[in-house]
Amino acid sequence: MLMKRTLLAAFTMATMAVNAQNLVEVTLKNGEVKTYQTSAIKDITFGKDNTFTITDDEGGTTLFEGNAQNIKFTKHHAIDGTSVHTIAHSIGLGWNLGNNLDAHNYGNASETAWGNPASTANTFIGVKNAGFSAVRIPITWLGHIGAAPDYKIEDSYMEYVAKVVGYARDAGLKVIINIHHDGANSQYWLNVLESSKNENKNTEVKNQLSAMWKQIATRFKREGDYLIFEGMNEIHDGGWGWGQNLTDGGAQYRVMNEWLQTFVDAVRSVGGENTYRYLGCPGYDTNVDHTINEIKVPNDVVDNRLLVAVHFYDPYTYTLNNEKTEWGHTGVNKENWGNEDNVTNIFSRLKTKFMDNNIPVYLGEFGNVHRSTDRAEAFRKYYLEYVCKAASDYDLPLFFWDNGGKGTGAEQSGLIDHGTGEYINNGKEIIDAMVDGFYNDDPNYTLQSVYDNAPQ
Questions:
Q1: pTM, 2 dp
Q2: 365 classed as catalytic
Q3: I need a surface site. Which of 158, 383, 421, 453 has the fewest CB within 10 A?
Q4: Annotated catalytic residue within 223, 335, 340, 365
Q5: 234 an active-site residue?
Q6: Which residues have a Cβ under 8 Å from the Cβ of 386 and sit 6 or more positions away?
Q7: What is the pLDDT of residues 326-346, one digit of tens each?
């Protein structure tokens, strides 16, 4: 027999929006609540004996038994896509789970290969409680990929990635996952140097890139837009942007742009939530200049769902290598470039090139290593607060590179223990400064006021 008129009315009211929903919540008269998640509902069929069936966009069906009291359709958007500004501030201030799932030895990726503990649910709870709103989980897939033409990713590895993503999701974080060190220095299969010289190699790489992203997209096709895919990471020929890319007539840049298009096409072809998922498109070496000058933002079947990704470590001799211990207009032991005006100039150039043309940009990595003196740490704190405040002003979400390092000096950038979620060293003080920089909306708190309060 047919359901009651009230139930039919509820479905009628929902019909206009039903294809945009991904969660159906059914409350039965006995009080039981049942949910069904799908990217699109194709059909709802009423049957006898108080049953009805929901058919999704791929022909899958779910049978609901029992007389429904109420049916609610909801769509949760983790990212507000109204404008570049709302996208940026929906993603917000993020944290990298660096040197974990991206770690690898002898061509085989393993989360603990570089000395960090395996991540846990507490890791991401700690990240969320510290004030971050998003996490980037770099993933190297080396050693877990089958042979051509399928390039099958090991089920166990895919499921482990999914488990870690689930930790971050359950903690309430937005998430970026990518293909990370598979392209490191053109040493592995994602080889831009060889691909720029050999079209057969380029075709082979594009086939593998497509096959892998289709598998990843299929595994996560029911996950909402809290999850962003980033096509690859810091692609270059071994010269970190100063190699043959400067003399090859643009060959590597053209290959990189082809790879970005391959990535977008592969993800979109899978359907489900991937139809509208936000996708991160890094420029060559994620270098700001190369990205501004050379990236061709891919064509897409949907509007306003592509983001450009760059990294920002200026000046790297200070932020990464610890060759200098101070920064900015009050610093003494500092570089002769890369001060406050460099930050605003670069962010302004990104805005003019991309954001003013309705293309969001995010800093997939930025950072500054831990120092051994209070004075050096004061400048570190100032640098990070200034960069975060400028990023907020220019609508740039950004992700601190935390590699778990607990010491001081070069490459020691840990803020949060990767296994427990607890603070490392003075991590709370540093994170609080970044959170203040990005999220403080007091009208008296400005980039100028941060500048005026630089260490003396």
A1: 0.89
A2: yes
A3: 453
A4: 365
A5: yes
A6: 328, 340, 343, 437, 447, 450, 451
A7: 999 999 999 999 999 999 999
